[in-house]
Amino acid sequence: MTAVCIATLAACNIRCATGDRQGSGNGTSGVRGGQSASPFTPVKSAGASMQRGPLTPLLLIVLTAFPATGAWAISVPPLAEPAWLAEHLEAPDLSIIEVSNETSFLFDGHIPGARLTTKSVWREQDADAALVHLPADTLQTMFRDLGVNDGDGIVIYYKGNDMNEVLGAYYLFWLLHYLGHTNVGMLDGGWYGWQQADGPISDEGETGESGDFVARPLPALEISTEELDAIREHYPVIDGRPATHFAGEDKFPANPRHGRIPDTISQPWADFLRTSEDGTIYTERTDLEPFFVQHDIDPSTPMLITCLGGTGAAIDYAMFYSLGYRNMRVHDAGLREWNVRELPLISPDD
């Protein structure tokens, strides 16, 4: 019953946030001809510039409608320290997922009980050639194949052999949230952090049965390109690409145009990257307080997060989430789709 209610709220959230002007039958509609404002429609006061409205109170409801801390058999912190994982390694209701490759999983070892996946299997190309997540029913089957049960806490980590492993792990973090499972944490420092903490390592192959994971999609955690274009002027839009890409000086090969969406804010996910002496890539959360203060963002502020695609945006999402920020939506199709559609862009020539 709870899942049905949450899904309904999420659907309402999307309609309202994109400026759905159609009345609901209760006398509330969009701001037109002196009519009363919807609580989800940005409000413009007379003689004043457009102000930020609540992207929505419902989004906060969605993210807090799950069991409170302690209601789970095991409650996983969003940023799980290696010591915490080592202490709970034998918990029967804990799933551990490694993002790497089969060779590394077997020959470099892995955290005991971990199951293996890769970044590429979770996404597909849409009509605009953007990479977006697979349908919810397919994702449900995939998590079941990884042995994840519906009531499990989940810890995700990456090996750090290359950037795709890091990006894939953070994408799973957001993807699980999108599927209605917030009892999930990123292992702080990934495989590098685990090794530094002298965590136990196994070289056994994958074992375990399929799980009974149930997907309860929350559309309110995702924003389409159409929605982003419709409401971007009213809420902070965070661009996770490298600073040179944001400035229009460089771009990824898959991006057809240089530049950025107007009025966006730069917070490169690369700011969180570190490389060990042996070349292992890992992430480290930085002090983000100056960023939030500079842009007048607090934990209740709605944020829309974009990047070239959803994997980069997911790193910003996870870092913000670990600091208590909940009112966020990820633009999974990213700048790749935005630019294919030739939507507004600030380029170096402007």
Quick recap of the structure?
This protein is α/β, with parallel strands linked by helices and 350 residues long.
What does the model show?
The chain has 350 residues and is of the alpha/beta class. It folds into two domains: 2-42 and 49-64, no CATH class; 72-350, Rhodanese-like domain (Oxidized Rhodanese, domain 1, 3-Layer(aba) Sandwich). The protein is 31% helix and 13% strand. The protein has helices at 2-17, 57-64, 82-87, 102-108, 136-145, 163-178, 190-196, 225-231, 243-246, 289-294, 310-322, 334-340, and strands at residues 79-80, 94-99, 115-117, 123-125, 131-133, 153-158, 184-187, 237-239, 265-266, 273-275, 281-283, 303-306, 328-330. Strands 1-7-6-2-3 form a five-stranded parallel β-sheet. A four-stranded parallel β-sheet has the order 9-8-12-13, with helices on one face. Strand 10 and strand 11 (281-283) form a beta hairpin. The longest helix is centred in the N-terminal third of the chain and has 16 residues, at 2-17. The chain is globular and about 55 Å long. The protein starts with a helix and ends in a 10-residue tail after the last helix.
